[in-house]
Design a protein that fits this description.
Layout (H helix, E strand, L loop, with lengths): L34 E3 L6 H4 L4 E6 L15 E4 L6 E6 L4 E2 L6 E6 L4 E7 H12 L4 E9 L5 E8 L5 E9 L4 E6 L15 E6 L5 E5 L2 E5 L5 E5 L8 E4 L2 E9 L2 E7 L5 E5 L7 E6 L2 E5 L3 E6 L4 E7 L10 E8 L2 E8 L4 E11 L9 E7 L4 H13 L3 E7 L10 H11 L5 E3 L5 H6 L6 H6 L11 H6 L1 E2 L2 E2 L2 E12 L1 H4 L7 H10 L3 E2 L6 H8 L8 E2 L4 E2 L4 H11 L15 E2 L1 E6 L4 H9 L4 E2 L11 E11 L6 H14 L5 E2 L2 H12 L5 E8 L2 E6 L3 H12 L1 E2 L5 H11 L1 H4 L5 H19 L1
Parallel strand pairs: 1-20, 27-28, 27-29, 33-36, 39-43
Antiparallel strand pairs: 2-26, 3-4, 4-6, 5-8, 6-7, 8-9, 9-10, 10-11, 12-13, 13-14, 14-15, 16-17, 17-18, 18-19, 20-21, 21-22, 22-23, 24-25, 25-26, 29-39, 30-31, 32-37, 32-38, 32-39, 32-40, 34-35, 41-42
Helix pairs in contact: 3-13, 9-11, 10-16, 16-18
Length: 748
């Protein structure tokens, strides 16, 4: 090999059976995780998959790591599938006294058989190439010969960057390194890592994924090929003896492409999973970590299917830090325990169905439009506490399928009688469901319960979940949205009308609601609670001919359309800005921004009274078609009693505890910061005045009615002709009047 420099440095290998401790994880990475299981491939593995089940366990007979063995991440030995190499104390910044090391662990003998201190590699680079100011570890892996390799970037004392490919031969106990040619892209600045992964392929070349592009170099460090894509390359992995890369959303599908050392595409497959992370290959199929769990991709049929979801295994998606294929029958999941503030390992093993314990608990299904970590945690904790019921989660919003209609799927299930037993209400049309009598009255369940009562919950929260006198859900938490401005300009009291806004803008020719308030946003967001001024919902009639609607059109005219260039938009005098309140501390952020000159004005209404939006979080409804209503209620009760609030809680007792905790140290500084304009400020424990202000917001907060969206859509479709001065305000109002009235008639 014609290398610029070859170094063989003898390193003492530490053989020890002692347990390791003190390896604090600093995050997960995809580098070096691809593990292709090639031995004894058996098509029956997948053909007979119905005879097996994936089950989770805290203990694994074979793959259990010793207590306190806390790795950052690892990769399988290519020569012995019983051996894994783990990084501990990992940092991408190396020096000659670095504490980072690689530990080789044998699952056959259950002992550490190898340890490489990365400070030895740093010393090797220094001895061979000279002093450095920084040494970056960009990527790593293990080749087919069993050698560990690293792609490093050295910054010399003059600031010049050079890339080196370093190999550590475990058997010969030595380092070898080669300078990669200057054609290879180097990092831009000290903290900007550009190399995402490097693979030592079977063809003898090295493939590096760098900022969405692939560069191929040979044993001499010469770049011999590259790959670029109009759609950014997502990931690079090995499969079938070659190197592949992913391109999401290419030609309305998700493709993987195989490339050679020149960067030429030699094969491609469709139907891959979007937003995925390749874990490895098992018996000819690719295992992928996606949003909800682990998916299997069949390259022959170009289809993928879910192997299991995290919820199936009572794992919370947001807790998953890393995933490893240990063998074709075991997957290890590294999770974060927020309560204990430490990582733990859950093993998911493939077992013969006949060997699995029969779960005879009553199955209760909860439907959700998206992954909700609070619901996932409630499901996992509930299942662990239960002998009678077991809850499973059915998620409808499938982003991996183009054209997938989540709402339609739920409606079809509801019509066919196989809908879930309950739903997490966010994302569902609770008004239509209530109108169809599809939702149980949760008030009746509260009234008949011996432990819970309506009186336990904040009145405005229950009102926000009430449709036609039916309490459709009891939320765990809620958030307040509103708009605020300067008290000196808008007055000190909350609440206003369209006429108030119009008058202010007439008096101030440069006044805007806000520079980012485009016309479509204004009607959808700012005036969402003023629909009652133009529509009599009970009578089923509307009146858009009145002057206030024409004033609304004039207000919108002063702002830009969402297709116009923001850069050409005159800043003007911003009247209001959006705000969100989910803790008592949020009000202190406003004081830093505005001083004492601020008021939470709220959204305009017909009456001019204070009005803010309440957004409910993790609210559960039981469907009237459920055959397991008692089990569904037990889950809801469990959730209401056991959750830990991260926002405003809906029950009075928890909210009062938050208030008491604040007032116990009223006005004292907290050890907690927020930032405004790049400057840090410390929160203080809220004062009674600040708490009272927030409680008033809560008392005057209301739910947004989703059926308003249909009216907003009509208005946004018919107003562009007015803004283009093709139609007058009267003509525009007349057309909108006709369309909205037709809509109301159709609803009746």
């Amino acid at each position: 090999m014609n290398k610029k420099g070859i170094l063989k440095l003898v390193v003492v290998i530490v053989f020890t059976a002692m347990f390791l401790s003190g390896c604090k994880s600093d995050g997960s990475t995809d580098n070096g995780k691809i593990s292709e299981i090639t031995d004894n491939k058996d098509e029956d593995y997948w053909d007979n998959s119905d005879s097996y089940k994936w089950v989770s366990t805290d203990k694994s007979e074979k793959w259990e790591l010793p207590e306190n063995y806390d790795m950052d991440f690892g990769f399988r030995d290519s020569k012995d599938e019983n051996n894994f190499y783990y990084f501990c104390n990992f940092s991408e910044y190396l020096n000659t006294d670095s504490t980072a090391y690689i530990s080789g662990y044998s699952y056959e003998k259950h002992e550490e058989f190898f340890r490489l201190n990365l400070s030895d590699m740093a010393n090797a680079v220094k001895e061979e190439t000279g002093e450095f100011s920084q040494l970056y570890l960009d990527a790593y892996g293990i080749d087919k010969a069993g050698s560990i390799y690293f792609l490093t970037e050295k910054q010399d004392m003059m600031g010049k960057l050079s890339t080196y490919f370093v190999t550590y031969n475990v058997g010969q106990v030595c380092f070898e390194m080669v300078r990669v040619s200057e054609d290879f892209p180097e990092r831009k600045g000290q903290t900007y890592k550009t190399v995402e992964r490097v693979i030592a392929a079977e063809d003898g070349y090295y493939y590096a994924l760098v900022q969405g592009e692939i560069y191929v170099f040979d044993n001499n460090g010469n770049v011999c090929g590259s790959v670029t894509s109009a759609n950014r390359i997502g990931e690079m992995f090995e499969f079938g003896g070659g190197v592949w890369y992913t391109v999401p959303y290419y030609q309305d599908d998700n493709y993987i492409f195989r490339i050679d050392e020149k960067g030429n595409v030699t094969d491609r497959k469709a139907g891959f999973t979007a937003s995925s992370s390749v874990l490895g290959v098992v018996c000819g199929r690719i295992l992928i970590r996606d949003t909800y769990g682990v998916t299997v991709y069949n390259p022959l049929s170009e289809e993928n299917e879910m192997l299991f979801t995290w919820s199936d295994m009572d794992i919370v998606t947001s807790d998953v830090a890393d995933v490893f294929i240990m063998s074709e029958d075991c997957i290890a999941v590294k999770c974060w325990d927020n309560e204990k503030q430490e990582y733990y390992i859950t093993y998911i093993e493939r077992k013969n169905s006949d060997e699995c314990e029969v779960d005879d608990r009553e199955e209760v299904v909860i439907g959700s439009m998206f992954i909700d970590s609070t619901t996932e945690r409630n499901v996992a904790d509930f299942n662990k506490s239960q002998d009678k019921y077991h809850v499973s989660l059915r998620v409808y919003n499938d982003y991996s399928e183009s054209g997938y209609d989540d709402g339609l799927q739920f409606s079809l299930e509801l019509a066919a009688g196989n809908a879930p037993d309950m739903i997490q209400i966010s994302g569902f049309d609770q008004y239509t469901l209530a109108d169809k009598k599809a939702l149980e009255d949760m008030g009746a369940w509260l009234d008949n319960d011996e432990e819970l009562s309506r009186d336990d919950y904040i009145e405005s929260v229950l009102n926000a979940c009430t449709v036609d006198d039916t309490l459709v859900a009891v939320p765990l938490e809620f958030i307040i949205y509103s708009v605020m401005g300067k008290k000196s300009e808008l007055g000190s009291q909350a609440g206003w009308t369209i006429d108030d806004i119009y008058s202010y803008m007439q008096e101030n020719s440069d006044a805007l609601l806000g520079t980012y308030y485009v016309r479509q946003y204004i009607i959808r967001r700012v005036f969402m609670y003023d629909m009652d001024e133009f529509i009599d919902w009970e009578a089923g009639t509307c009146d858009f001919s009145q002057e206030n609607f024409k004033k609304l059109l004039e207000i919108m005219m002063r702002h830009i359309d969402d297709t116009e260039d923001y850069l050409s938009y005159n800043d003007g005098n911003n009247m209001i800005s959006d705000m969100v309140v989910f803790t008592f501390e949020n009000m202190q952020e406003r004081t830093v921004e505005y001083g004492d000159d601020w008021v939470v004005k709220g959204y305009p209404t017909k009456s001019g009274e204070a009005c803010h939006q309440m957004d409910i979080i993790s609210a559960y409804s039981i469907l009237t078609t459920s055959k397991h209503k008692e089990g569904a209620w037990e889950f809801i009760k469990f959730s209401l009693k056991n959750y830990t609030p991260s926002m405003f809680p809906s029950d009075k007792a928890r909210l009062q505890k938050l208030i008491d905790d604040e007032l116990a140290h009223e006005g004292q500084e907290k050890n907690k910061q927020f930032f405004h304009d790049g400057q840090g400020y410390y929160y203080h424990y809220s004062t009674q005045e600040e708490i009272d202000y927030v409680l008033e917001l809560i008392d005057n907060a209301y739910a947004y009615k989703s059926y308003y969206d249909d009216i907003v859509k009509i208005i946004n479709e018919e107003t562009p002709a007015y803004f283009a001065e093709i139609r007058s305000a009267d003509e525009t109002a007349e057309i909108i009047q006709g369309r909205v009235q037709l809509y109301l008639d159709e609803q009746d």
